[in-house]
Design goal:
Blueprint lengths: L1 H25 L2 H62 L3 H14 L4 H13 L4 H12 L4 H13 L3 H9 L9 H13 L3 H14 L4 H11 L5 H14 L3 H17 L3 H12 L6 H14 L1 H15 L3 H13 L3 H8 L12 H11 L3 H8 L8 H14 L5 H19 L3 H13 L3 H11 L6 H15 L2 H14 L4 H14 L3 H14 L4 H13 L3 H9 L9 H13 L3 H8 L9 H18 L16
Length: about 625
C-alpha cells in the first residue's frame, strides 16, 4: 500500500513537471512580458482612480463641513444664545438678555425669537426701542393679529398714536371681534380723548371674556365715574370685589376713594382712605388723594394731617414738589408762600421744587416775589420755565416804562420758547402755562406746535378749540373741529359740534347734514347730538321729524343754554308758540355763542310775527244788523 502511494506521488510530480516544461516550451516570451506590463499599467491606473476618488471624497467632505457644518454650528450657537437670553430675561437681567438677542438679530434680521426678546426687554425697561422691535415683527407677520396688537400696544405706550392706529387698521376684519383687539382699541380711544368709545370697547372686551379680572377692572375704573347710576353702581360692586385680589387692590381703592369723595360719602371714603394708606403699594400721590378726602371731611383734622405730611414730603424733592403743586391746586398757595420761608433754601432751588414754588407765587399773584425768585440761577432742564415765569412776572409788574416792560416780557418769553422748542414735554408744559396765564397769542403758537405730536394732539386741539371759541374766531374754530373729527371720527359730541357749526356758517352743507345724522345715530340720547340733528332736519324742511326728535327728549334736558335756541326754532316752526317762548326768554340766554345769538334773533322775529292777532272781519254793509 505504501509503495503504491509513493509511486502515485512521484507520478503526479512528474506529470506536473512535464506540463510546466511544455508550457515553457510552447509560450512566447515576448507575449508574456507584454501581458505583465499591461497588468502593471492597469494596476497603477486603478490606484490613481482610487486616489482621485479618495481626494474627491475628502474635498466633498471638506466642502460639506465648511458649508453645512458651519451652518449647523451657527444654528446651534444661536439656539444657545437665545436660550441663555430667555433665562436672563426670566431673571430680569434685561441688558444682558438684550445683548445676546442682538447678536442673533444682527446675523438673522428676521429671527422672530430674537426680536421678541429685544422687544420684551425694551418694554420691561420702558425704552422706546420697543416700538421699533414690535414694528419689525409686525412687518414680518403682516396678517398675524397678535403681532399687530403688540405693535399697537407698544406704540400707545410711547405716545405714537398714528402708528397705533395704523397697526389696528391692519388687523384682519375677521380678528377684530376678540377681547384683545377691543382692549387695545379702547386705550387708543382714551389717548385720543374719546372716553365714550373707550367705554364701548372695554365693555365689548368684558362681554367676550367676562371672567377676565383685568378687563373687569379697566371697565369698572372707567364706569364708576359714569352719570348712569346703574353703571356706576355695578362698577362700585366690581371694584369692591377686586379689592380682595392683591393685583388690583391698590388701583381699586384709589378709584373707590375718589368716587366716595365725589359722592360725599364720608364713611366709605374714610374706610377706603385708611385701607389705601395701609396698602404695600401706597405712593406719596395716594397720600395726596387721602388729603382730598380729609379736606372735605373736617378742616381741623385736615390741617393736622397736612402738618404731618409736610415734614415727610420735605425728605424727597419730588414729593415736596408734588405736595406744593397739590396745595397750589387746592387754594392753599398762600400757605405754600408762608411754608417755603421755613424750609432750607437748598431744598427749593432745584427742579421740580423750584418750579412748584414759582407757581405758588404766580397763583397768589405776588409778582415781585416771583420776579426775585426767577431772577437768577439755573434750573437745569427746567431753565425754560424760569425764563417763562420771569416773563410773566415782568408782564404784570407795573413800571414807569410800560414799553420797556413789554419788551422785556417778549424777550424773556421768546427765550423760554426757544429752549422748549423741539422738546415735546417742555412745549406742552409751556403751552399749559401760557393758557393758565391767559397769554392767548403765545398759547396759540405753542399749542399749534404741540398739535404735531400725536400723543399730545388731542390736548392741543381741545385748547385751541377753547381759545378760538373765546375769541369768536369762527373760521379757525371750524378748522380745529374738522381736525378733531379726523383724529377721533367716532366721537358723537365732536361730530355734532362740527355739523352744527358747519350749518351755521354755511360750510360744507351737505357734509354737515350727513355728520348731524351720523352723530344722532351713534348717540340719540345725547342732548347735543339730538338737538343738532333736529336743527339739520329743520334746515332741510323736515320740521315734523325735527319736532319728533325734540319731543322724544326729557324736558329737563332741553334747558341747556346752547340747546334752547335750536329747540325754539323747531317749536316755532311746529306752531308751538308758548313752549318756544319759554326757551327764547330763558335767563341763560346770555351764554349763547355769537352764531346762536343770530338764530335767537331769528326766532324772536318769528315769534313776534306769529303773535300778531289777525284783524276781525268787517260786517258787510248789506248785512242785516243783529237784533
Amino acid at each position: 500500500m505504501k509503495g503504491t502511494s509513493g509511486s502515485r506521488g512521484v507520478e503526479t510530480t512528474q506529470q506536473t513537471s512535464v506540463q510546466f516544461k511544455h508550457l515553457k516550451e510552447t509560450a512566447d516570451p515576448e507575449s508574456f512580458t507584454g501581458t505583465h506590463s499591461e497588468f502593471q499599467r492597469q494596476r497603477r491606473r486603478r490606484r490613481l482612480v482610487i486616489a482621485i476618488a479618495g481626494l474627491a471624497i475628502v474635498l466633498l467632505a471638506a466642502v460639506f463641513f465648511v458649508t453645512y457644518g458651519s451652518k449647523l454650528y451657527d444654528n446651534w450657537r444661536d439656539r444657545r444664545l437665545l436660550e441663555e437670553a430667555t433665562t436672563l430675561l426670566r431673571d430680569q437681567q434685561f441688558s444682558k438678555a438684550a445683548q445676546l438677542a442682538q447678536q442673533v438679530a444682527s446675523r438673522h434680521p428676521d429671527s422672530l425669537a430674537a426680536l421678541s426678546i429685544l422687544a420684551e426687554t425694551a418694554e420691561r425697561q420702558n425704552v422706546e426701542e420697543a416700538v421699533a422691535w414690535r414694528e419689525r415683527m409686525a412687518r414680518l407677520l403682516p396678517r398675524d393679529p397678535d403681532s399687530q396688537l403688540n405693535f399697537a400696544s407698544a406704540a400707545l405706550r410711547f405716545g405714537k398714536l398714528d402708528l397705533a392706529r395704523q397697526a389696528l387698521n391692519r388687523v384682519p376684519a375677521s380678528d377684530r371681534d376678540g377681547a384683545a383687539y377691543h382692549v387695545v382699541a379702547g386705550w387708543l380711544a382714551r389717548a385720543e380723548g374719546n372716553f365714550a368709545e373707550q367705554e364701548e370697547q372695554f365693555a365689548a372686551a368684558v362681554e367676550k371674556e367676562p371672567n377676565n379680572d383685568l378687563y373687569q377692572f379697566n371697565l369698572a375704573a372707567l364706569q364708576i365715574r359714569s352719570k348712569d347710576a346703574e353703571k356706576s353702581e355695578n362698577a362700585r360692586d366690581t371694584l369692591e370685589r377686586l379689592i380682595t385680589l392683591a393685583r388690583y387692590r391698590t388701583g381699586s381703592l384709589r378709584a373707590l376713594l375718589n368716587d366716595a369723595v365725589q359722592r360725599n360719602d364720608r364713611a366709605a371714603a374714610d374706610s377706603f382712605a385708611q385701607q389705601l394708606q395701609m396698602s404695600p403699594e401706597v405712593t406719596f400721590g395716594d397720600y395726596l388723594l387721602c388729603l382730598n378726602f380729609y379736606q372735605k371731611l373736617d378742616e381741623k383734622k385736615f390741617r393736622r394731617v397736612l402738618e404731618k405730611v409736610k415734614p415727610f414730603a420735605a425728605r424727597n424733592p419730588s414729593d415736596l414738589a408734588l405736595l406744593i403743586e397739590w396745595m397750589n391746586q387746592n387754594e392753599l398757595a398762600g400757605d405754600v408762600v408762608k411754608w417755603v420761608d421755613k424750609l432750607p433754601p437748598a431744598q427749593l432751588t432745584s427742579p421740580p421744587a423750584c418750579v412748584a414754588v414759582a407757581d405758588a407765587y404766580a397763583t397768589v399773584k405776588n409778582w415781585s416775589r416771583l420776579k426775585r425768585w426767577t431772577r437768577t440761577g439755573n434750573w437745569g432742564d427746567a431753565e425754560y420755565l424760569r425764563l417763562a415765569y420771569s416773563a410773566i412776572a415782568e408782564r404784570h409788574l407795573v413800571s414807569s416804562n410800560a414799553s420797556r416792560t413789554k419788551s422785556e416780557f417778549e424777550t424773556l418769553w421768546q427765550s423760554a420758547a426757544e429752549l422748549a422748542k423741539d422738546v415735546p414735554d417742555h412745549e406742552v408744559t409751556l403751552a399749559r402755562l401760557a393758557t393758565k396765564s391767559q397769554l392767548a397769542n403765545q398759547a396759540e403758537e405753542l399749542w399749534s406746535r404741540v398739535e404735531e405730536n400725536p400723543a399730545m394732539r388731542r390736548e392741543a386741539l381741545d385748547n385751541l378749540r377753547q381759545l378760538y371759541r373765546g375769541k369768536n374766531e369762527m373760521a379757525k374754530l371750524y378748522a380745529v373741529l374738522q381736525r378733531l373729527h379726523e383724529s377721533s371720527p367716532n366721537e358723537p359730541p365732536i361730530t355734532a359740534d362740527l355739523a352744527r357749526l358747519g350749518l351755521n356758517l354755511g360750510e360744507n352743507i351737505e357734509s354737515s347734514h350727513q355728520l348731524a345724522k351720523e352723530a344722532y345715530d351713534r348717540a340719540p340720547n345725547e342732548i347735543n347730538c339730538a338737538v343738532t340733528y333736529a336743527f339739520s332736519l329743520h334746515r332741510l324742511g323736515r320740521n315734523a321729524e325735527a319736532l319728533a326728535v325734540v319731543q322724544s327728549l326729557p324736558v329737563e334736558r332741553l334747558d341747556d343754554a346752547h340747546a334752547a335756541v335750536y329747540v325754539a326754532l323747531v317749536l316755532l316752526e311746529g306752531n308751538e308758540l308758548e313752549r318756544a317762548k319759554h326757551y327764547i326768554d330763558d335767563p341763560e340766554n346770555g351764554k349763547f355763542y355769537p352764531e346762536e345769538k343770530k338764530l335767537l334773533e331769528e326766532a324772536k322775529t318769528k315769534l313776534v310775527a306769529s303773535a300778531i292777532p289777525l284783524p276781525a272781519e268787517s260786517p258787510s254793509p248789506s248785512a242785516t244788523p243783529p237784533l
